[in-house]
Design a protein that fits this description.
mainly alpha; 92% helix
């Protein structure tokens, strides 16, 4: 029982950090998308392309992070 509680506590601590990181990445994505809109309005295609690259990189980072942590979450939650 103690091992299970330690595993759950560890998981929750890790999950909390993942959640915080995802909130930061979500804020960065919003900033980048807002920038893309402004740069498009200003005719700055060079800057649009750079921001689109950053968005793609951030989205890939989110996917990779979720894929890495999802199996552990399922293992802890599985009865």
């Amino acid at each position: 029982m103690i091992e299970m509680l330690e595993m759950i506590t560890s998981f929750l601590a890790d999950w909390h950090m993942v959640t915080k990181a995802l909130h930061v990445v979500a804020a960065l994505l919003k900033q980048r998308r807002d920038s893309i809109e402004q740069f498009q309005k200003g005719g700055r295609q060079d800057l649009v392309a750079r921001e689109q690259f950053d968005v793609a990189l951030l989205e890939a980072t989110i996917r990779e992070d979720l894929n890495r942590h999802a199996p552990r979450a399922m293992a802890v939650l599985r009865p």
